[in-house]
């Protein structure tokens, strides 16, 4: 699995996941529990992961929708 997106913005993360799902790309959200443990004050980012084979296509989907790194 490769990291596609790292963000503290839950709305951005949910939108990215919805776009990927719409394109048939499976994704996995990492560091969810760490983010919750820190009290949701926005210090620890969550990571959105995709398989190695889907990485290039997933990047294009995010780029086309102007979702980039923070």
TrEMBL record:
Coiled-coil stretches: none
Pfam families xrefs: DUF2007
Record domain DUF2007: where: 1-64
Highest rank taxon of the organism: Bacteria
Protein name: DUF2007 domain-containing protein
Organism this protein belongs to: Thioclava litoralis
């Amino acid at each position: 699995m490769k990291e596609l997106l790292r963000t503290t913005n839950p709305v951005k993360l949910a939108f990215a996941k919805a776009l990927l799902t719409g394109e048939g790309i499976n994704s996995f959200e990492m560091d969810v529990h760490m983010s919750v443990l820190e009290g949701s004050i926005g210090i620890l980012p969550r990571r959105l992961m995709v398989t190695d084979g889907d990485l290039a296509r997933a990047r294009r989907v995010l780029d086309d929708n102007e979702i980039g790194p923070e």
